[in-house]
Amino acid sequence: MKLLRGCVTAGVAVFDRQANTFTDVLNPDLQFRSASVVKLLIALDYLWDRGPEYDIPAADRARLEVMLRSSDDDAASYYWEHLGGADIVDRMVPRLGLTYTAGPPATHPGFWGYVAFTAADTVRIYRYLLDQAPTPVRGFVMGNLHQATRFGSDGFDQYFGIASVFDPAFSIKQGWSGFTGSSGFGTDRAKPVAAGVDLTREALHTTGTVGRGDRTIVAVFTLHPDGTPYGKAYTDLTRLTRTLNVPGGVLSAGSWLTTTGSGVRVRSAPNTSGAILGALPAGVDVLVTCQKKGQLIEAPPRSSEWWAYLPKYGGYVTNVYVGSGGAKLPGVPDC
Questions:
Q1: What is the pTM of this model?
Q2: Where does 255-321 sit in CATH, by number?
Q3: What is the pLDDT of residues 295-318, one digit of tens each?
Q4: Would you say domain 9-251 falls under CATH 3.30.420.40?
């Protein structure tokens, strides 16, 4: 595992279910604020006593699906309130045999994103889901994680880490906290100083499964220096994930290149008439498989009529904002 440069703190646990062993670990019991990864516990607590049929009313199904697929915070807050807040954590810890998971600070009981998680406990949650949970529970939760949307409900691109690195079989439950513009940013005006877990630095986490049959469980938690832009954290976490030993994982093919500019649009065709499929976080690494000649784009001193194809987005971005900004990307084949 190649550690990140600078002051990034990481907790990593990679578990091969087929070999029943960990293949990568780094600070597996170090506590991080969970951000949206706690939504796994919220969903499991909701489902716990609904057997044996596990019928889910339509309204709850809609809320749970958007919470799991698109990391919707309003849905999480709804269940946090209706299921007793930190009582959810108190119930789930003994049920799943978690060791260092803990509720939010007493001064901030409504902040579900402040629940303390570790990489090792996250692996335990996925192992329960995959190997012990009733079939309807496993099917519902994992089915939604396998259908995670490209963008979260708050508009943030959540295809970092696992989703950026591996093809094609993966599931994800991501977490991000503290970035300008993210849901809930700035709402906590009085973060407790001695909370036992860092509540101030930007947090970005990638968790889920990789490989056929959900062979390997991956949990990577990271904290970044204060003020780190989302694109920088996105890139650093993805680079770290690329170095992990993940049995069964198929690395996405192509060339990794860094983008420039902010809000660069990905389009369905190599021209500005193509439908907008999304916008890239500023300064993020992207996977490029080929390039295609299209509309000339001029952004002095750069210009190019070539467009890079990004398979993870299924669309194109002008070469003006990819790599060195040359007219054509060296070493990248034509589409």
A1: 0.93
A2: 2.30.30
A3: 999 988 899 999 999 999 999 999
A4: no
